[in-house]
Every structure is written in C-alpha cells, then in structure tokens.
Design a protein that fits this description.
GO molecular function: beta-lactamase activity; penicillin binding; peptidoglycan L,D-transpeptidase activity
Largest sheet: 7 strands, mixed
Keywords: Antibiotic resistance, Cell membrane, Cell shape, Cell wall biogenesis/degradation, Hydrolase, Membrane, Peptidoglycan synthesis, Signal, Transmembrane, Transmembrane helix
GO cellular component, one term: plasma membrane
Protein name: Beta-lactamase
Family: Belongs to the transpeptidase family. Belongs to the class-D beta-lactamase family.
Structural class: alpha+beta
CATH class of the domain at 472-579 and 665-831: Alpha Beta
CATH superfamily of the domain at 472-579 and 665-831: DD-peptidase/beta-lactamase superfamily
Helix content: 25-40%
Number of helices: 28
C-alpha cells in the first residue's frame, strides 16, 4: 500500500514537471519573441503626423496659399531588419534608384552634411545669413560699421556651428573639413580605413559616399525616435513612390508616405505678404519642440502672414495656420522601435486667413510697377536710362477702414522654393536670394562698398513695410498743416519765392526751380506751394515755426517713436521710421560727444560718470553737482560740450532741410500711407491691417477684424481745405498733371524726389548720374479728392524723379474705379514724359 502511494505521488510529480516544462517551452520557443518584446516595452510615446495647414485667401476668396498632396520616401530605422553596418548599402540603393531609374534624385534631402567638395577641395559649408535686423542696430551707426558688425557676427556664428557639429558627432574640435568628412565615413560604415587609405563599401564614388552620409546623418538625428519614419526624399513623383514600394524586398525599411505640401498657386504673387516656410533655427528649435513640432520634418512660418499666424502663441487672434497634428499613442522597446498602437487622436486642419487684399488690385500694382522699372531702365519715361531702377514698393489702403488692398515689394521671391525642404536647395538661387550683394557688378560694388550706398536689390526684404527712406516733397503736407495750425501762416498768406533762401545766416538752400531753371515761383500761398513744391516757401515757414512746434506735429501724426507706440499696427514685420526732431537728433549725436568726453577725461564706457553725463545731455539738465570729483577744467569742458550738443541738436538750418522732407526724415511707404490717410479722412489714424477675417476649419467665422482708430488728429476746416486744394492742384496743374489732367475722377497727390548725394562731391554726383545711381522717386495719390476712398503710395529707388511713379497710381485707379474695363489698359501709360518737378 505504501509502495502504491509512493508510485502515485511520483507519477503526479512527473506530470507536474512535464506540464511546467511544456509551458516553459511554449513561452520560450513559440512565443519567446513576443514576451521578450513585452519585457522591454516599458516606454510610452506620442507620435504626431503633420496636420494640413490652413489656407490664405484674397478678400474675394482666391487662394494665395494652399496645400497639395505629396509623396515622400521614408526610412524606418528597424535594426532587427537592417543592422547598422548594412544601412549605407540600403541608402546607396535608394540613391541609385532615384538617380538611374526615376527622375527624382534632386528630391533627396542631402543638405544635412555641412561640407562641400569643390574641385577636390573639401570645405565646411554652413548657411549663415546675418542682416541688420538680426543685430538690432540703431539708426545712428554708419553703413561701414554696420557691415563690419554683420561680418563679425557671421564669423562668430560660423565658428559656433562648426564646433557644435563636431560635438554632436563626438569628433575632435581641431579636425579640418576633409578630416571631419572621412572620420564620419568610417564612423557610419561607409568607408573602411586601411592604414592611410580609405576604401568605400560597395565601390561607391566619393559623391555617392557623401550623399549616403547625408542621408545617414538624417537617420542618426532620429536615433532616439526610431518609431518615427525619417523622410529622406521630399515630394517625389507618384511613379517614384510606387517604384520604391515594388522594390520593398531590395530596399528593407524603405517605403513612402503621403502628406500635404504647402503650395502657392501664383508663384511670387504677394510673396512679401504671405512669407514662406522654413526650418526651425537653432535658437528656436527647443521652443517649437515643446509645442509638439517635429522640427526635422515640419517647417515653420518665417516671415509674413505665415509667421504671424503660425500658431496661437504668435498672434492676438488665437488663430493657427498649423492646426493640430494627428497623434498616435504607442509603446516602444528600449531601442525606440514601435511595439503596439494604443490609440489615436485625429488632427485638426489649420485656420483659414482671409486677407483684405484685392486680387486684381494686387495684380495690377505688381505688373504696373514691373512695367515702370522696364520703362525707366530703357529710358522711356524721361529720355534717360535708369539702369538701377529695380527696387520699389506700392501700398494701396482704404482710408476709411485701414484695410490694405494691395501691398507690393519688388524684387520678390517664389515661396514655393522653400516649401519642399524648408530652404532653397539650389545653391546659386539660394545665394541670389539671401546674399544678393555677392552678385553685384564692379560699378555697383563701387557704390555699395566704397560709398556705402545701399543699391542692392534684396528679394526677401519688404520695401513696403521696412525700407526707411526720406519722403522728399511728400512731407511738405505735414509742414503745411503744422504751419497753418500753429498760426505761422493762413491759407491766404503769400510768400514771395526769391529762388535762393538767404534769410537764415549760413543756410544756402535754394528752391528746386532756381537750381534747374534759374527762375522762381514768385508769390505763392500754401496751396500753390504744395502744387509747385516750392522749397523757398517751406524754408520760410519752418524758420518762423521752430523745432518745438514742428516736433509737436510729427508726434501727433505718430511719425516719431513715443514710448512703445507701434508704427502702423500691420500684422507683418515693419520698421518704425521717424521724422527729424530734436529728440531724434540728440539720440543721433550723443554717441559722438560721449566718445570725445571719454577720450578727454580718460574714462571707460561703463563708468557711471559717463552714464550720468549721457542722461543729463539727453534730458537737457546739466547739473554740476553730479560732476563732483572733476577738475574745474574738466567741468568747463563738459559744459562746453553740452552747449555744443544742444546747439547742434536744435540747429535751425537742419529744420529747414527737414521741412521739405530731407535731413533725418525717414519713413516706410506704409507709414506715408497711414499719414496721408489720417489727413484726408478727417483725422482718424486707423490701424493698418491685412487680415479681414479668420475662419475655422469648417468654414465658420472665428474672428472678424473691425476697423480700429488708434488716434484722432483734429485740424481746422480751413487747414483741411487748403491742403486738399493743394494736393488736387498737383494732379491738375503740377508735377503729376501729365498723367492725371482730365482724368474722369478728381484726384490729388504729391510727388517727392529724394536726393541721395547731398553729402558727396559734385564729381561723385556727376559720375553717379551717368551710372544711373540717382534720386529716388515717391508719389502719394488720393482718390477721389472730394470724398477720399483710397490712398496709394509708390516708391521707386533710382527713378530720378517722383513724377515717374504717378503712372502706377493711375493704373491702380483704373482698376479700383473700373475704368480699365471701359478702355484698354495702355502698355505705355507709364512712359509719359513730364517736365515739371
């Protein structure tokens, strides 16, 4: 009996061990991989897919920025399928397929390696573009010093980028470009080092090896996120995408995906309004990562409306062109490989931005400005060729709402160039857009580098919102208003033009008609002075007015910075140009005086005494008690310097120059438009805006932009009537009469000819004229003059005369008032010749 119990117990034990053994075999042999992965699946991750970007439309609903479907070649870094040593072989096959089997080699993303090989010379090749805006330089610094500081900053960034690149890949910092390249070849199994020779795998060429390395570095950037596919070619053809899919066995880990690609249907049309998309810069990468961006594959609005409405953190309307990405919640193993999809949250497309831009007005403005450039360059406007008339701007604004109906800056750029890769892939095109100064002729270099004159056409620069230029005679409208409102003159006051103004000792300004024809305008009142642009008249009223009253009115019209006031309020980037004023002049001259004081007193720039002196000079409050510790001679020197400083800041002869739009006056075309709007609409300074409304993804209204009055500038009715009469006479009898005389709608305007060689010798000015480096032309138009609806500002650099610009305004009026539908638009409308100023 006892033996039977032992026997049964033994059988039970054997069965138990057999069951355990079978279970263990099941776990290890049959489901071993599954449970091994489960043991390693200790991480949860969120993977985002790029959302569909919102559209940008004209006021009529025409698409300016939209999206198209695109195909990308992607690599998923699964080392269990392709071990590290074989990755270069797979990438080489992809490169050869796109080069030999399909026409999409140019779509490969090959700019991740900042090294170039040119004529067997290996060099680092980092893209670094530094502008004045990047340095936030003030207006008081010379052009030569600006260029020096820009180059210093550029070299500093280049050095920092080179060091960071080497540190990212654990390379010695003392390696040159050639050594760096070959160290990376070895590191990523693209080449083997044999004593002092390098042998590429798979018999690849040097160019192929460089291409493979570029793609390999893309994959390396993603090493901690292997669940995310890496885009290695963008926007390939459908044929290429399907060819890659068919070759899946030969190209493991390689496939394709579909995603929306930003597309601008009209090319460079309204490009400075729209902006473009770019990769996140090093200084903003972490910020965008924290907002959920995949900065390796997702581009960000760089300028224009694309930047302003990139996401809700960028604007006050809570609008986002980007939208919300689709999110996948997954688990990954310790190598970053995806194991399981837990769930998904669908993405939300971006908001739609409806602009105030009229498609037809914008089109007419762009085409007319380009036509004017051509006519000026060919000498069809006044018989003289203007070869450098290749930059300019147009602003068209509704005077009763502040809406911008058209905004043009030339030269322009095609934002589609940036859409695929977040940068411009073709090197020459990229350099011409970002560094146009590298392509100047020898003659242009003389003016740009020797005389420090800006004559470089910059495609990315918005001349409508950022170019700061003297307004010329268009500024005489403000001087007229200030003189009338301050009681210096009445609408009937007569001043006799004597040609040469010698009423202020030491001042030798002449009326333009004296310089050109050796005659005068005779007796003129304010309306006549505006009509004929009589410098003599404005010299006389400015001398009587003085700086205090002049400053009062430039502040009223927001033409001088006062605290944190913005320039015009427009949504895209703009500069704040300022009128000449005592405050501006003090800021302009203070540096020179402080430098002299530092040298005389032998004190350092960070000395508190120097800071105190600066404060006292600027506040016009010199206090000897704050100069304690200085000798009597030193105090005497400070007092003398102070008196000279105040005298220079308030020099009356400079006010006379400022009164006719020269001197330190500098405004953007946008500011000029806002100033004229404020005057002609009765005193309402509207906030200028490009956005009409914002729509939700379903098309419902999210936000409607209403007209906003920033300030009210009251002037007497007789002042208003006098200056409006003067503006009307400009178009009927004055410098713009050749274009607007007998125009079916009553209009007004003011021309401005901005001299740029006042500080150079007559020999240089004569040479410049022969080379086509001449005065800038400005024209401001108002229509209808008896009930103003729109203001138009046109600026053309090196146009020679302001009246040249009037033809562009006429073309815009024809479109706005429907007159071009009644008669054919003349191709030669801006080749009419005027002989008045």
């Amino acid at each position: 009996m006892k033996k039977n119990r032992i026997k049964y117990f033994t059988i039970i034990l054997i069965m138990m061990f057999l069951t355990l053994a079978l279970r263990l075999a099941f776990l290890q042999l049959i489901n071993g991989d599954y449970y091994s992965q489960q043991a390693e699946a200790v991480f949860s991750r969120v993977y985002s897919e790029k959302p569909q970007r919102g559209e940008i439309l004209t006021t009529e609903g025409i698409k300016l920025a939209t999206n198209i479907q695109s195909f990308n070649i992607i690599y998923t870094d699964n080392r269990k399928v392709v071990p590290e040593k074989d990755i270069p072989k797979v990438l080489l096959k992809v490169i050869r397929v796109l080069k030999n089997e399909t026409p999409d080699y140019e779509k490969l993303i090959l700019d991740t390696l900042p090294i170039k090989i040119d004529n067997n010379k290996v060099e680092f090749d980092f893209d670094v573009y530094v502008s004045e805006e990047d340095l936030n330089l003030n207006d008081n610094i010379s052009q030569e010093e600006k260029l020096k500081k820009i180059e210093e900053k550029r070299q500093k960034i280049l050095k920092a980028k080179e060091e960071r690149f080497k540190k990212d890949y654990n390379l010695p910092l003392d390696l040159d470009a050639n050594q760096t390249l070959y160290e990376l070849f070895v590191k990523y199994k693209i080449a083997n080092k044999n004593v002092d020779r390098y042998i590429f795998v798979e018999n690849m060429s040097l160019q192929e090896a460089k291409d493979v390395l570029s793609l390999r570095l893309l994959i390396e950037k993603n090493r901690f996120y292997k669940y995310k596919p890496v885009e290695i070619a963008k926007n390939v053809s459908r044929k290429t995408a399907f060819y890659i899919a068919m070759k899946s066995e030969e190209l493991p880990n390689v496939s394709f995906n579909e995603e929306p690609l930003r597309y601008y249907p009209n090319g460079d049309f309204a490009s400075h309004i729209l902006g473009y998309l770019s990769r996140a810069g090093e200084d903003t990468a972490e910020q965008y990562k924290s907002l959920g961006y995949d900065i390796n594959n997702e581009w960000i609005g760089a300028i224009g409306l694309e930047a302003k409405f990139e996401n809700i953190t960028k604007n006050e309307y809570g609008a986002s062109l980007r939208g919300e990405p689709k999110e996948k919640y997954i688990t990954v193993d310790k190598f970053g490989n995806q194991l399981k999809l837990i769930g998904e949250v669908e993405g939300i497309p971006g908001d739609t931005i409806v602009t105030t831009i009229s498609y037809n007005l914008q089109k007419v403005a762009e085409e007319s400005l380009e036509r004017l450039f051509k006519n000026l360059q060919e000498g069809k406007v006044d018989g003289t060729r203007r070869p450098n008339a290749n930059r300019g701007a147009v602003v068209v604004a509704n005077v009763k709402t502040g809406e911008i109906l058209a905004l043009v800056s030339k030269p322009s750029f095609d934002p589609n160039l940036f859409a695929e890769f977040g940068t411009i892939k073709d090197e020459e095109t990229r350099l011409r857009i970002f560094t146009p100064e590298k392509f100047l002729t020898e003659t242009q270099k003389y003016y740009n580098e020797v005389l420090k004159l800006d004559i470089v056409p910059k495609p990315l620069y918005n001349y409508a919102t950022k170019s700061l230029v003297p307004p010329g005679s268009t500024f005489k409208l403000l001087t007229s208003i200030a003189a009338l409102e301050e009681g210096i003159i009445t609408p009937n006051t007569i001043i006799v033009d004597k040609g040469m103004y010698r009423e202020l000792p030491g001042f030798k300004g002449n009326c333009w008609i004296w310089n050109e024809k050796h005659t005068t305008h005779g007796p003129v009142n304010v309306a006549k002075a505006l009509q004929v642009s009589c410098n003599y008249f404005y010299y006389a009223v400015a001398q009587k007015m003085g700086w205090d009253k002049f400053d009062k009115w430039v502040k009223k019209y927001n033409l001088i910075r006062n605290g944190n006031n913005s320039a015009t309020g427009i949504e895209i980037g703009e500069n704040f140009g300022q009128a000449s004023s005592v405050e501006k002049r003090k800021a302009l001259f203070i540096r020179k005086y402080l430098k002299n004081i530092m040298e005389k007193l032998k004190i350092k720039e960070d000395d508190k005494l120097l800071s105190d002196i600066k404060e006292m000079f600027l506040n016009e409050n010199l206090d000897d008690t704050r100069l304690a510790g200085l000798s009597e001679n030193q105090k005497k020197y400070i007092n003398s310097a102070y008196n000279q400083f105040i005298a220079e800041a308030k020099r009356l002869s400079d006010l006379l120059s400022a009164s006719i739009g020269q001197g330190e006056n500098q405004f953007t075309p946008l500011q000029l438009a806002q100033f004229y709007m404020t005057v002609v609409n009765g005193g309402n300074r509207y906030k200028l805006h490009l956005v009409k409304e914002i729509l939700n993804p379903d098309g419902s209204l999210k936000y409607k932009v209403e007209p906003e009055v920033l300030d009210k500038v009251e002037i007497k009715p007789e002042t208003y009537n006098a200056v409006m009469q003067g503006l009307q006479k400009v178009n009927e009898e004055g410098s713009a009469a050749s274009v607007f005389r007998n125009y079916p709608i009553p209009t007004g305007g003011k021309t401005g000819t901005v001299q740029i060689f006042n500080d150079f010798s007559s020999e240089i000015a004569k040479r410049a004229s022969a080379d086509g480096v001449v005065a800038n032309g400005v024209y401001v138009g108002v229509a209808p003059i008896n009930d103003p609806q729109i203001v138009v500002v046109v600026l053309v650099y090196n146009a020679g005369h302001g009246y040249s610009c009037a033809s562009v305004v006429k073309d815009i009026y024809d479109e706005y008032f429907g007159l071009n539908k009644m008669q054919p638009n003349s191709e030669t409308s801006n080749s009419q010749i005027s002989t008045t100023h």
